[in-house]
Amino acid sequence: MSHKLSHHKLRIVVHVDLDPGHITVDVGGCLTQSNFPALLHLLLRARRLASCPDIALNLQRAIHLDAGVLAHLRHIASPGSHRSGQHTAIHHEMGLAASAALEEADEFHLSIVEPVYLPVCPIHSAKDLAAARLDVAEAALLEHPNQPTDPPHPVRPSRAAAAKRATREKALKAHRVRV
């Protein structure tokens, strides 16, 4: 296992377009429950940079995305979640820092760009990865029955093409031995 994959690191890049005032936050690395309050704090700080309260959160480059964190982000992105007063109880397991940060948010509109599959950290075993892929594929099939659940596989050559290539290689080998 490489040094880069030996622990969960969160990488965040904030893009601010000053003319229309749009903010995009790109998340890379591992987004877990332990570093979720840091992401939330940065989202609220990024909101102060723009003239409008809208922030786009791009999670497509994350190599690990905790399902609980994604559920909390979806709740934050839902309209009216800040006015309902439920955010403190919902984020209690994420820590007091996340709850306090959400209480600061008067106007905060979040749109999320999610990956097709919920990425599982490479630190975890291949068995966990296979089980997680199966769970995600089943969930994707239930939510979007008309979309493919697996990425396309590379095209394999036909048996006839493989047999022809093997015959040609044998003939070339036999010709080299004679010379």
What does this structure look like?
- By secondary structure, this protein is an alpha/beta fold.
- It has a single domain (3-143), classed as Transcription Regulator spoIIAA, CATH 3.30.750.
- The protein contains six helices and four strands.
- The protein has a four-stranded mixed beta sheet, with helices on one face.
- Helix 1 (36-47) runs parallel beside helix 4.
- The protein is elongated and about 85 Å long.
- The relative contact order is 0.12.
- The model is unreliable at 1-6 and 149-154 (pLDDT under 50).
Q: What is the global morphology?
A: elongated
User: What is the CATH topology?
Assistant: Transcription Regulator spoIIAA
Low-confidence stretches: 1-6, 149-154
Give the strand order of the largest sheet, numbering strands 1, 2, ... along the chain.
1-2-3-4
Q: Given the helix and strand composition, which structural class is it? A: alpha/beta
